User: Fold these one by one.
Assistant:
Number 1:
Amino acid sequence: MWITANAYSECSGRFLHGDTSSMNLQGEYKHEEGDLDAVPIEITYGFSKDGRPDLKQFVISLVMSDSLPVFIQALSGNTSDKNHFREMVKEYGQSLQEKWGEDKIWVWDSAVYSEKNLGEISEDYTWITRVPETLSEAKEVLENSDTEKMHSTALNGYRLFSTEVEYGSVKQRWVVVFSEKAFVRETKTLERKIEKEKEQVEKDVWHFSNQEFHSLEDAQKAAQEMEKGWTYHKISATEVRTKRKKKDGGPGRPRKDEPTLTIYRIKVEFLGDKSVIEKKTLKKGKFIVATNELDSEKLSDEEALTAYKEQQYAERGFRFLKDPFFFANSMFLEE
């Protein structure tokens, strides 16, 4: 590949921002058997950050300090962020520290946040990363954090508070962040989801009211199953209706002395599930930035947030590489 496998430059910034991006390629790129040893990376399918899973790709790993690239590496197309940054730091971290200084702090996105990664890098390196909101511990913290009790910052529209936790046997500080802009944006998105589901629920209820059941138990179970498919709504009332039907299924009303079946229908009413909506609303506009630097004198909550927000440095670096005027997005490989 024409991309340098690894390169160094002077690094004056305090934070090192690591990220990856995929570069899409046209063609088959088949390797002859036994030829892989001569190929530094494999061009293959993987998670496409450009939304093109139909194309083969390779991955670029980039580390930025301020607005300057200090490390770049070409990786196989199926490389996972969840493993790459841990492996990169373990392989190059010591030499990079000698080059850049022991006081550098690594900054990554939430893909790095796992017990294995944190356990293997925390003893030797200081880091900042975002905590995935899918973690049960993170969900609990976000739901229980009171926005009114967070302290304001010099960063306009942000409020913070921090707490010490232990995850993956690593003691760390979680900085819970509330963003007013994110809250407005995410709340509007939630409202659209609720309205969209309401339209679907109305259709579900209409179709369900026309279904016939041979027992009340079956009808009630079916109503419960239908409700399980809803996120923001719940059944508020039901009305059971019955009618007699000929046992042989023939047309017309049954005679008094004719064998019949009792048919059940349920009319359902629904409303928004306030407890669910309130719980989800409480998490809107919030996220958690974690660091293994427990001393707030060395790294304040506000500095940790600012460093994470500066992940855009790496994103800008990728935008430059993918800019059509730079021509890096046009790949021509010799066979």
Number 2:
Amino acid sequence: MSKDKMMVFGYARVSTENQLENYSIEEQTARLESYCAAKGWVLLHTYIDGGYSGGNTDRPALQTMLAQIRETHVDAVVVYKLDRLSRSQKDTLTLIEDELLAHGTDFVSINENFDTSTPFGRAMIGILSVFAQLEKDQITERFTMGRIGRGKAGYFHGGGNAPTGYTYADGLLTVNEYEAIQVREAFDLFLAGKSINAIWHILSTKYTTKWTAAKVRNVLKNSLYIGKVHFMGQEYDGIHQPIVEKRVFTAANQLLNSLSREAAKTTSQRNPFRAGYLLSGLLYCGRCGARYSANHGYYKCYSRAKSSPKFVRDPDCKNDNWEISTLDHLVCQQVDAMVSSSAAVDHAIMAADAAKTVHIDKDKLRRTCAELERQIERLIELYQVGSIPMASITQRVNDLSAQKAALESQLNAPDEVPAKDLFLAAVEDYRQGFADGDTDRKRALLSGLLDRITIDGQSIQLHWRL
């Protein structure tokens, strides 16, 4: 390739293992500018990924650069060192051969002093990429061994995410007294017979700390509060101050795992193949059309998460992940705003197909009613033999009975019902029962109103059942 007035892009990266590397973003960009100036090349732009690992290609600046190369001819991409592009042998070869060379763009590495315009440079790519991946693997191994050592020594591994009840600074956990009071109260309320949902509402009302039902359950199960730390599936004695007495923690977890609590759980909690989150079954990707699943605290597009290959629609989909509690809150906010306004409900109905009807699957309704009845009978049996106190089952029985009554009313309706009539009934059910319902009940009420929720980046679109 001609070296006169070449148009090039620069690329710089600092990984999450920055402390193990001796060249900063500033140092890399300075080297790139000096090198291009000495060669007489025009450095059009330097793309920078700060804080991204070289172990994969899911980096915003890298993807932006590649997209630009596909649209506009660029003579070369220049990096300070090969491992700045990637530490994966497979990714290095794919990026250079399938992305750069395939679009007439050469690759230049200053540190290794080679470029792909020469046969020797192309041969060196494969050799040096092997050593780049080897170095990455060694860094990972040293990092993991160091964290195991910290775990054995009793140090908490949580980065900047301090668990409720503690403050994390300088590598140590210290007790946050305001939150510690709430943690102890959660255990006390649970042992006094309060449900997890009830505890969540009580704490949220009394304190400014953000509580959810999931947080309450996680607190009750976390042995960190009796002075333990965890790393890679192992438990060690921690050096931090416990918040909860061991006897209290043990009693709470015995109750959590007891037969009575297992029987009192909803079917979806007992059965891992049933939906367990508020928006399960409603979320769809607005980019590739795949569903969203819930795991590890986030709603994620199946295509991006690749947790279930059969649900992947586009393996290159990069739609946003959403924190479960955040998306639940935003969707409920929008639904609340809609159902609380008669004008908004009327507007939604007027904008819909006035002639649309919905077929009622009464066989399915009967099966669901029978299942609800079995759950109610089982709870009553457990109360009669003394397995569960009345206070623990009253709310659950009431919720199940309300669901059953609502379904039975639909059994008496015609087989074909105007969509607007069902929607109005769903609006009224939501107004009456959502605030006090458990997760199953709330999900059922949302499903009565919503056909689907489409996610496109940070955009959320609700599609009503009209």
Number 3:
Amino acid sequence: MKWIIFCLVFCVVLPVRITAADRKPDVLVIIADQWNPRYTSWENKEVRTPHLDQIAKQGMIFDACYTTSPVCMPARVSLLTGLYPHNAGHEIWGNASGYFPAPEDAPMYRDIQRAGLTTAHIGKTHWTAGPLWKEQFKNSGAFYKALGLNHVADIPGPPDSTKGRDAYSQYLWDRGLLEAVAGDLHGRYVKGEFAPRPSVATTEDYHDWFTTGLAVDFIQKQPKDKPMCLVVSLHSPHPPLDAPGKYATMFDPEKLTLPANVPEKYLREGHALDREKTRAMLANYLGKMALVDDCVGRLVEAMKTRGTWDESLTVFTADHGEMMGAHGYLTKGRFYEESVRVPLVMRWPTKIQPARSRAPVQMMDVYPTIVDAVGGELTPGRFAKSLLPIATGQSERLRPIAISEIGDKVPLRMMARDDRYKYWADEEREYLFDVEADPLEQTDLSASPEHHETLNIMREKLLTHLRSTQTNLAAGYKPKVQRLREAEAKKK
């Protein structure tokens, strides 16, 4: 009788204990596009992002997070692969046509899936360009399955053609809005995507709002006893500067402060980047950020309704930044902080204590961090690193420098950033900035005799990094003599 009672207790109680002990966290990753890190509330009080502010207050802010490339495709592929652009199997240094990530080289979602989580990606992917994946897979579903994804809704961004076939284009078509939205966007892209004016779509019909709605629906449909990893990739605040509805007028351009590294000579009346135009662009840009923040709020509420919000790992980041007039430039593709640095915040109650880190990290580190958090096993050969040792206070840093790479001609451009200095080389010359003393990068020290040794040190750090992060297919090889001797030793 006692044995029967023991069995009943064992069979009923033990699974509950295992479930409570082994419950893996839900993971929510929110990726914005072209978000200048200087326009976060923890760096700029003119920004209005209350939902992101709350996440940041409850988590860790990484103040020195850098994209592996300051342009969309290579940055996003780095996240999927855990590799730098210069690694074999990646080797994409800019937005490219005729490229897709081979599933065997892009294991992020498979690693997470193998750990027992349902995997989903909703929103912009931008891993592929061209139809080459169709040569190996019969349809997109087979391709995504090979990547380790259980669910995908690829929303490439606002359509500028009535021939769009994605879910958002279909939504606009069903509502009789596709022709108007596509025509407006086509005109913006042709004439100038930085000309700020409201979208012809309402907020409820705007692409980010639509994408967020798909994500909320996905969260609501997931079984609560099955952990999930959901990546929501929004297109904003990427141009065109077409903030919809109230977001187009949320910020008064005249009340905005332009940073000191927006050159005065470019702010003269009549110049393409005069003071009035630059502030108007910034106002619309901040409006799109506010829209993203409200989308974040919708996702947070969905997670709270699911009941796992305070046990979930939440990550907010971006693929790259946006110059927004700094140093006289717009768009991305440069190694100035506005373009190459990205926001990165991680919230995981009881696991990550609120703090800020100045350690140089890479955006692609999000991948191994997730795998680490869910108790998974990272595919060997990754150069991305889990940030949990920093986020949990076990370590102050993981690497001596962060790097970034971009280029479509020889020599390729490369950047290195350590605790204090930033060095880069382009096709013509080298640059050196003391980012600690000169955060707006207004004084180039590369030609300064007193900084000659620092320049050499940064060159050496970059070279050492490149020598240390090459894919090595010979790693672990044992000569035949060694193998034979080890085999004989085992027999004894």
